[in-house]
Amino acid sequence: MLDYKLLEALATVMECGGFERAGEALGLSQSAVSQRIRALEIRLGQPVLVRHPTLAPTPAGQRLLNHLQQVRLLERDLSTALPTLETASPRLRIALNADSLVTWWATAIGDYCRQAGALLDLVIEDQDVGLKRLRDGDVAACLCANPQPIAGARCIPLGRMTYLPLATPDYIDRHFPDGPGEAAFRHAPAIIYGPHDQLQHRFLARCGYHGPFPYHLCPSSEGFLRLARAGLGYGMIPRMQVEERLATGELASVAPGEVLEVPLYWHFWRHSGSLLAGLTTQLEAVELS
């Protein structure tokens, strides 16, 4: 039989990114957390964590984390059927991209989470890499641009987000006086969300440019927009985030007519209970643009 205290220790280490913070979250010493992980590895006869160069679950650890995610959700269904069974409020750990969070996500799921009494543990990841979190057993579901389902999970297309290459009119006058072209792209500072963000590269490739370009790194959707509004650079911004600013002329496209359509897919573990199934139903009704 599995000892779920040991599995909770494993999950908390991964969620907190280390043993010391996991101990603080569990009310244990770092040594006690390490002992629980060691006890789990002895029981299994194999390691569950790779500690170097970065902390990551082994294949066995991934399977255990995936199992625990589903058990947590199924326990919620059991407590509904057996009201005398005390359980904590269900917490859904979900990976999603920052642009979805800052635009449509809260509106789409707000009513359902309030009615279900669900708590969210949101992990922000670029839409191109979020699926790794689900594969590693770190989350129960993820929102990403990858359409390929993984074993034991389902994948549902939700629609597309439209991105535009935007900057202030003054910035465009300074850096793109003759419109988009190789010389402008080589020298005009861009804004990129993070090292995994490929939207800017895709846009430049569509325009026929494949060379180097200067850029700011800004891992915040709100900060990204603020940099663009301050005239520090141009970047790929969701249209639904800036419709009013486009209408007033505060922001404009550096390449009118050029857009990027990014598909979004909802991945979640099969047999994870009614809470995640209900959330999935809510998301299927979302209209993205």
From TrEMBL:
Keywords for this protein: DNA-binding, Transcription, Transcription regulation
Annotated Pfam families: HTH_1, LysR_substrate
Domain HTH lysR-type: 2-58
GO MF term list: DNA binding; DNA-binding transcription factor activity
Family statement drawn from the similarity comment of this UniProt entry: Belongs to the LysR transcriptional regulatory family.
NCBIfam families named in the record: argP, PRK03635.1, PRK13348.1
Protein name: LysR family transcriptional regulator, chromosome initiation inhibitor
Organism, scientific name: Billgrantia gudaonensis
